[in-house]
């Protein structure tokens, strides 16, 4: 799986020098913002129902959970579209000069496709079908890049060509996975919806709240940066995130998927979790420390050489963001323990405070210092501190869980 995902990530990185010459920093900033909003919507509207798939005890239950997750996403996204069309119909009567931008109608579509990808990949993870997952990701990135590059010569560089490539890429991976393995049951288990709701209530309620606040604290800075500093600043910030996160996500996401499955298996069998958590963190550090050092030391000259002189700003931002993003790469990979140990209520409070502090330092950087760089440095500092605390919390609760297993063994 790492090999396939690595090829996909490498393709994205190799295409960046061409992208920065085809598209302006403002257009790329608007595109990063679109992806951020679509991602945020998918977190809230999916109710994190895809997380229930890996926790299923049988294949039939996993397929039923896929079906219920699909139903949830269809209902919530249809509701959002109905609301948008209703507002669009009412606006001319309230204020004739106002109208909903056409781009807004693409947000729910992007969100729905991303949610479906999480469902499909959740089923692949349950079946350990990592080769299919890897090939799907390569297909997604390939089609996305081809469309985003070729359409420039047909229609010119616009936000529409970027979004079209993104949507086509996600749709292609859905079709490919469905052809390889149908994740849905042959008969529709409508009668099991009550059992599904009762069994996974904490995930549908608290995991959604946690993930929504976490996603908001990661994605809202892009929107606030655009409001305060402009679209170009979003482009520089988004590019910095992409450059740093790509090599680490290559490892972190794949390890995290396997870690979640192993945690669920150990939980079902009553085995300890501390050894697994420790070995996973050690593995993540080993894979991530070299990219961390290289990017902290050489990101600015590398970006100027490869992407162009104006992108040196992104290289400087990478140096500010590196400590936070490195710890987030570790903590996000093992964050599935929240679901396994049912810590959703506690983490809801944690994510709430993180969101408040992130927005606060971002606003202080603008209103007190009028500095984009200080705002970004503040975001990184808050993220670093909170992620250290997060890993400490997970370790403490895993120790508590393992002690409980030992005491039950001697009873």
From TrEMBL:
Q: Name one Pfam family in it.
A: Polysacc_synt_3
- Please list every transmembrane segment annotated in the UniProt record, as residue ranges: 31-55, 67-91, 103-126, 138-156, 162-179, 275-298, 318-341, 348-369, 375-398
- Kindly provide the name given to this protein in its UniProt entry: Oligosaccharide flippase family protein
The domain of life is: Bacteria
Spell out the InterPro entries in the cross-references. Answer: Poly_Biosynth_Transport
**What is the annotated localization of this protein?**
Cell membrane
Q: Which UniProt keywords apply?
A: Cell membrane, Membrane, Transmembrane, Transmembrane helix
What membrane topology is annotated for this entry?
Answer: Multi-pass membrane protein
